[in-house]
Amino acid sequence: MKKQVQEILAKIPRAPYADVRIVEKESQNIATKDGVVEALESSTSLGYGIRVLKDGAWGFAGSNDFSKKGIERTVKRAIEIAESSARHKLEDVILSTQKPVKASYKTPIKEDPFKVSLEEKLELLLAADQAQRVDPRIVISQTSFSAHRERKTFASTNGSLIEQEITWTGAGVEASAASESDFQNRSYPNSHGGQFATRGYEMVRELNLVENAPRIGEEAAALLTAPLCPSGEYDVILDGNQLALQIHESCGHATELDRVLGYEASYAGTSFLTPEKLGKFRYGSKIVNLTADATIPGGLGTFGYDDEGVPAQRTYLVKNGIFVDYLTSRETAAHLRKFIPGYKKPSSGTMRATGWEYIPLIRMTNVNLEPASKGDPLQGCSLEELIADTKRGIFMSTNRSWSIDDRRLNFQFGTEIGWEIKNGKLGKILKNPTYQGMTPKFWRSCDAICGKKEWIVWGTPNCGKGQPSQVMYTGHGASPARFRKIKTGVVKWT
User: Fold this and answer.
1) CA 258, CA 329: separation in Å to the nearest integer?
2) pLDDT in tens, 218-276
């Protein structure tokens, strides 16, 4: 596709900047429910997107028509949109500098998920489906598998020419139990479809779905008669899979600079992390370190280059508790200098589009809570050690629900399951665990983070953003962590 993308780029009249992406996508999705194959889908897509900067404004158009006339029409449309946008602009778009890149990148995988036979995949999923049904109160048993591959070729007028092949795989199981008055779910290895990673089918094998399915069924049934999560103020230990969504909602989205600048205000809100806070604001306790890292092996937000041709990189967002940087694009990084004259950083390489038909947006890569290292007594500890150090608390695992305001400040999360902690020991199962808080106060209450051995990069394949809405895949590395004096259960207003 190198020749094609260069030929399309050559048809764009002289402009300050332009780029072209050719994207070929293939995907496979399989789902079972109650021992029956519920979904079996395969899809492919091929097209190109053209982005033009003209008269200080962006124009974008996409098409799957690769004919000479089709390309000419698409180029013309992108230019017309740029010209129309320029008539209504408030100020010129300025881009941070970016060196030309000529490179290629391919997700390292051991076993191609598209080459594993359909029969083998179905056999695994149906076996896991059956294995969950260990109790007559299990009314729904579900499994899912997905594989996705993108082949992208990018060329720009600054001389970049990049080829990428990105593959990711995911799978999971879910059991639902019911009584006359209650309904409970348990998922493995995570809710909302399971675990996802830029890896091959080897990851699915490593999940051991069939072996873990009975426990999931047993826990779903046990939750029906479990006591409710108590209301009050408790020390809360969050499992890594729940922390992943906490990070996503209150850290990742909060640090997207386009959201801060108001580009998302009408659709998804803004952010409390306004520019004057950069480098000064205490976001969390001193042990809280948050990074955006698109270079982590296997992370769902891992790639070689973003959709502006910027290399993948690792960037601190919060360091030792202080808010230090944003997720940026070439445009927003340059724009930030108007608010912070000393800001000289280029793009952090976070611009991605769902497909050829969409314009790139700032998207989370792998936004992570860094694991603690050995130092203070509880830094780098195991989950067992952390529980042993907690006198009165609740351990919560696996997201069930979430709600957060449009500035990413006030939130409430619910998990599938919890356990009472008394005098350093796990006690009875608790159902419908919930906790509430305000983002900076919550992260400032973090006093212990488990170590590298407990750290997992959890995949989130369904992050929505933009108008028209785009769905993107992101990752979040986390190990269990403790937060002091957190409100749990049902909030009682007085």
Assistant:
1) 8
2) 999 999 999 999 999 999 999 999 999 999 999 999 999 999 999 988 888 999 999 99
- CA–CA separation, 114 and 150 (whole Å): 13
Shared domain for 213 and 308, answered yes or no, is: no
23 and 111 share one domain: yes
**Local structure of 136: helix, strand or coil:** coil
Whether residue 346 contacts residue 97, with contact meaning beta carbons closer than 8 Å, is answered with yes
On whether residue 493 sits in a domain, the answer given is no
Strands 392-404 and 232-238: parallel
What length does the chain have?
A: 494
Q: Is residue 194 located within the same domain as residue 242? A: no
Domain count, the chain: 2
- C-alpha angle 475/478/481, rounded to 5°? 150
What CA–CA distance (Å, rounded) separates 255 from 332? 12
- Residues 283 and 179: their CA atoms lie apart, in Å, by 43
251 and 187 both lie in a single domain: no
Q: How far apart are CA 106 and CA 149, in angstroms?
A: 10
Both 193 and 237 in one domain: the answer is no
CA distance 220 to 134: 10
Domain boundary among 172, 205, 223: 223
Q: What is the spatial distance between Cα 81 and Cα 52, in angstroms, rounded to a whole number?
A: 9
Q: How many Cβ atoms sit within 10 Å of the Cβ of residue 202? A: 14
